[in-house]
Amino acid sequence: MDTVLFLTILVVVFALLFDFINGFHDTANAIATAVSTRALPPRVAVLMAATMNFIGAITFTGVAKALAKDIVDPFSIDNGVIIILAALLSAIIWNLVTWYYGIPSSSSHALIGSLAGAAIAAAGFAVLNYEGFIKIIKALIYSPFIAIVAGFIMMSIFKVLFKDLNLYRTNKGFRRLQIFTAAVQSFTHGTNDAQKSMGIITMALIAAGLQTGDDIPMWVRIAAATAMGLGTSIGGYKIIKTVGGKIMKIRPVNGAAADLASAAVIFGATQLHLPVSTTHVISSSIMGVGSAQRVKGVKWGVAKKIVLTWIITLPTSAIMGAAIFFVLNLFI
């Protein structure tokens, strides 16, 4: 078999593996609040999330197209398939390590950092498409802050609208609402996160000379959506515990507010064709909701650890991507 074709097949396999891992790594993001408030049993929540992730993943392609060309131009790079393979291996390793320790790290940061690092190792800093790359980095940086504000505003609105209602009845009603908000959250997760693997596979097909345009083939869309759905069905219960309880004590009204705020931010990014970290957005919206209720009620020590992980993911994954590229390049 031709070496380039073999490497392209490996990229497809590892991209789908990344999507699968991303599914159980990021499942917690969509359903953590619903599980922590007992609006849904964990098994039901995970199965619902898997279904809605799949639907969301096959519905949109804008983020995938942006990722396929905005970081590195696949039409102009040598060793393109090796670069992409190195990036995938780096991102998978980072995802597994952070999942093992229950840290809600960003799969998006890991993949984008790894891809940039591997590309720079192969062809220097000039290989980056700086306009597109900076646009993506800005989206990754700004989205958590937007989510904090959105969570704060959403919770403030809820406080005004439902201030005169009986607390027990309000919580009961919001538990029911959370079934809907968790479904919406899972759908928006699929519209953004699953597309990253679609973009990577398409980028590899272009770099290997097997495709001439940046359209996302239907088989790629279905394969990536299926991989994420299957991964989601396994669930990431360690991260559910962190996102759903360690940032703040979540009641149903808090969970519904956080879900709606973060879903709006994620879907807005999808419409703008910008990849964002669902982990960052959802964790940040919970912080915003907690701040609107009681600033001291947010466990800022845990929040600081999460933020620190966010900060180190990009440079660490870039270094890992570069190192793995050098190792692969020795043998291929």
TrEMBL record:
Which locations, inside or outside the cell, does it occupy?
Membrane
Tell me, in one coarse class, where this protein mainly resides.
membrane
Q: Give the GO biological process terms.
A: phosphate ion transmembrane transport
**Which parts of the chain span the membrane according to its record?**
46-68, 80-102, 108-128, 140-162, 218-240, 306-331
**Keyword Chloroplast appears in the UniProt entry:** no
| Entry keywords, A to Z | Membrane, Transmembrane, Transmembrane helix, Transport
Q: Which organism is it from?
A: Viridibacillus arvi
Membrane-topology descriptor = Multi-pass membrane protein
List the InterPro entries: Phos_transporter (IPR001204)
Q: Which domain of life is it from?
A: Bacteria
Q: GO terms for CC? A: membrane
The protein's matches in PANTHER family, at most eight in alphabetical order, are given as: PHOSPHATE TRANSPORTER
According to the UniProt entry, its GO molecular function terms are:
phosphate transmembrane transporter activity
- Name listed for the protein in its UniProt record: Inorganic phosphate transporter
